[in-house]
Amino acid sequence: MYPRENRRMGVRELEYYCKQSDCSYTEPSQSSSCVYVNDIVKDSTTRLEVIQCDVNKDPTLQRSRDIVCAKCSYNEAVFFQAEQTPKSVALNLVFVCCQCGHKWMDR
Fold first, then answer.
1. Sign (positive or negative) of CA dihedral 54, 55, 61, 66
2. Confidence label for 29 from pLDDT (cuts 50, 70 and 90)
3. pLDDT more than 90, % of the chain
4. Distance between terminal CA atoms of the chain?
5. Are β-strands 103-106 and 13-17 bridged in parallel, bridged antiparallel, or unpaired?
6. Are 62 and 80 in contact (CB under 8 A)?
7. For residue 97, how many C-alpha atoms fall within 13 Å in the half-sphere facing its CB?
């Protein structure tokens, strides 16, 4: 017996059926419990380790001379908006130092 979904009259029920070509036997499921649930959780947070260090050479990104790198104390960095999650309420920026390539997030 093989499981399948029976969509009769708008009611979706689990039933078991025979796969032999000359057999039309079906049997209703004994319980109405859920068989399988596919919950997809999307993780769209920005991970600093996947950002390239040489993104600071991109001329299309905005630059700031008002930020100081904590690693080398250089005062220029490129920045861009971090990916937003459904739960995020604030604008997060990712900074990359133009001298050493150090990456950090402004929260």
1. negative
2. confident
3. 27
4. 56
5. unpaired
6. yes
7. 14
Cβ atoms 102, 88 nearer than 8 A: no
Question: Is the distance from CB of 93 to CB of 106 less than 8 angstroms?
Answer: yes
Euclidean distance between CA atoms 71 and 104, whole angstroms: 10
Looking at the DSSP bridge assignments, the partners of residue 106 are 93
pTM: 0.54
What CA–CA distance (Å, rounded) separates 107 from 105? 6
Rounded CA-CA distance 67/99 in Å is 13
Domains of the chain: 1-39 (no CATH), 48-106 (2.20.25.10)
Residue 72: name the closest of 94, 103, 105 by CA: 103
CA 94, CA 1: separation in Å to the nearest integer?
56
Tokens 């009611």 belong to residue:
11
Residue 41 has pLDDT above 70, yes or no: no
